[in-house]
Design a protein that fits this description.
alpha+beta, Alpha-Beta Plaits, 2 domains, 4-stranded antiparallel sheet, about 30% helix, disordered C terminus, mRNA processing, mRNA splicing, Splicing factor 3B subunit 4
């Protein structure tokens, strides 16, 4: 679509984890609940014409896009929790290692509850994960959250460790790294790398990446 090259990126949201049954029309009608929609784009496989599990929705204003993120992020659509966030910021969020372990969770706490609680401290770079029994789907009582910087994760630990969520005092600490060496995230080395990476990210990169994903034809 020719108008794509003038897409207002600040008023555009990324919508991920979409079920294969979701269509452009359905996504359009869903997002209308947040505000007037300008354009919906679901990148499709060239052979099967099936969308690839994510898409983009452009609103009239940035305020409408922000409202869509607030009310639509992590709602269930065909049984899958969709992810809704800014198309621009989504591509520049780096997983720097600011990953937290959240323990002693009440069984009724789900991923959306964790997101809503901890997003107050900063940008969460991926959907929070709650460990679940593979057969029953029940929570095992712990989960993980990753922020895009250590200032946010430090603040979350300071504010939330020992706080009560649904009548249970939760524990919040840096998660163990996946390399199996028993070291937790949040080390001085990780913080140094994160600070260096932040300085080296070109500000023009996010929009370029979004344009590539949208396969815009000029």
């Amino acid at each position: 679509m020719a108008q794509n090259q003038e897409r207002n990126q600040e008023a555009t949201v990324y919508v991920g984890n979409l079920d294969e049954k979701v269509t452009d029309t359905l996504l359009w009608e869903l997002m209308l609940q947040a505000g007037p929609v300008v354009n919906v784009h679901l990148p499709k496989d060239r052979v099967t014409q099936q969308h690839q599990g994510y898409g983009f929705c452009e609103f009239m204003t940035e305020e409408d896009a922000d409202y869509a993120i607030k009310i639509m992020n992590m709602i269930k659509l065909y049984g899958k929790q969709i992810r809704v966030n800014k198309a621009t910021s989504d591509k520049k969020n780096l997983d720097v290692g600011a990953s937290l372990f959240i323990g002693n969770l009440d069984p009724d706490i789900d991923e959306k509850f964790l997101y809503d609680t901890f997003s107050a401290f900063g940008v969460i770079v991926q959907t929070p994960k709650i460990a679940r029994d593979t057969e029953t789907g029940n929570s095992k009582g712990y989960g993980f959250i990753s922020f895009d910087n250590f200032e946010s994760s430090d603040a979350a630990i300071e504010a939330m460790n020992g706080q009560y969520l649904m009548n249970k005092a939760i524990t919040v600490s840096y998660a163990f790294k996946k390399d199996g060496k028993g070291e937790r995230h949040g080390t001085a080395a990780e913080r140094l790398l994160a600070a260096q990476a932040k300085k080296n990210i070109p500000t023009i990169m996010p929009n370029k990446l979004v344009n590539i994903i949208l396969n815009i034809k000029y």
